[in-house]
């Protein structure tokens, strides 16, 4: 199962050593196969990028997102929810998660910038698109693709708390606890993963690959 190879649904994992990477590769090759349009299977994310290695398949993602949606619904106890997606990466996750939440929910979006044009963070978070509607007195769920250093979510949490929401919770599809700089944890974590750079299902490298249906590993010898 996933937990045995250190992709924990919640909880901490050590950084990705060579051993961990090898276990990931074995896991990917044995389990993360996808059925292509022609019915054949492979470890490719999409025919357009035949060399990319699948890290989390669309099926694994869908199953976990459904679990998170059920958990979020239970915790809401019949109350309304404002789902705040962090653009652009969280868009696919928010779209899927929202359809697994059985609550009276509305959407809002913010956009921040902290990453340069590649894998390296600048360290400074800026809000480049604010909320459309006030969140005072509301149950707010911040929906993020990946919690990495924590700089983005720590900043957003501070900004949102100033508006006095009734509750403020965080859902992140992926969590890289070993990379944390700011002290922050998500309330809902899809998968806790080692220190790897991943792409797909909303996550990008220099704005590319967001539309991959699976989450794939970004290796040093890629992109072409
Ligand atoms: P943080 O502020 O360092 O926590 O960064 C959060 C943001 O960095 C995420 O929302 C992503 O946009 C981006 N990010 C962090 N790790 C990755 C990755 O492995 N792939 C793609 N984007 C990433
Ligand atoms: Mg993001």
Mean pLDDT: 83
Q: What Rg, in angstroms, do the CA atoms define?
A: 17 Å
Number of helices: 4
Q: Helix and strand string, N-terminal first? A: HEEEHEHEEEHEEEE
- Widest β-sheet, arrangement of strands: 6-5-4-7-8-9
Number of E-type strands: 11
The CA-CA distance between the termini, in Å, is 32 Å
Tell me about this structure.
The chain is 23% helix and 28% strand. By secondary structure, the chain is of the alpha/beta class. A 6-stranded mixed sheet has the order 6-5-4-7-8-9, sandwiched between helices. Strand 4, helix 3 (91-98) and strand 5 (105-115) form a beta-alpha-beta unit. Residues 1-6, 10-16 and 27-42 have low confidence and may be disordered.
Secondary-structure map:
Blueprint: H1 18-31, E1 34-35, E2 41-42, E3 53-56, H2 58-76, E4 81-87, H3 91-98, E5 105-115, E6 121-129, E7 139-147, H4 151-161, E8 167-175, E9 188-192, E10 198-199, E11 215-217
Parallel strand pairs: 4-5, 4-7, 7-8, 8-9
Antiparallel strand pairs: 1-2, 3-11, 5-6, 10-11
Helix pairs in contact: 2-3
Magnesium ion binds next to β7.
Précis, in short:
With 224 residues, the chain is an alpha/beta fold.
Features:
binds magnesium ion; disordered N terminus; single chain; 28% strand; 224 residues; binds inosinic acid; three-stranded antiparallel β-sheet; alpha/beta; six-stranded mixed β-sheet
């Amino acid at each position: 199962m996933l937990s045995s190879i250190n992709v924990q649904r919640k909880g901490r994992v050590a950084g990705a050593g060579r051993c961990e990477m090898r276990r990931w590769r074995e896991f990917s090759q044995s389990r993360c196969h996808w059925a292509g349009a022609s019915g054949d299977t492979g470890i490719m994310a999409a025919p357009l990028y035949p060399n990319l290695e699948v890290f989390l398949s669309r099926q694994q993602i869908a199953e976990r997102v459904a679990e998170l949606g059920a958990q979020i619904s239970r915790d809401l106890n019949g109350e309304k929810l404002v789902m705040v997606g962090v653009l652009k990466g969280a868009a696919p996750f928010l779209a899927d998660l929202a359809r697994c939440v059985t609550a009276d929910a509305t959407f809002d979006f913010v956009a921040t910038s902290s990453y340069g044009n590649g894998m390296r963070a600048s360290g400074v978070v800026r809000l480049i698109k604010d909320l459309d509607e006030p969140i005072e007195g509301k149950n707010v769920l911040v929906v993020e693709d990946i919690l990495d250093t924590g700089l983005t979510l720590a900043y957003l949490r501070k900004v949102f708390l100033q508006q006095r929401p009734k509750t403020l919770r965080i859902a992140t599809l992926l969590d890289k606890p070993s990379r944390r700089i700011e002290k922050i944890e998500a309330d809902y974590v899809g998968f806790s993963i080692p220190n790897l750079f991943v792409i797909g299902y909303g996550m990008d490298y220099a704005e590319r690959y967001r539309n991959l249906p699976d989450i794939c590993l970004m290796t040093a010898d890629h992109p072409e």
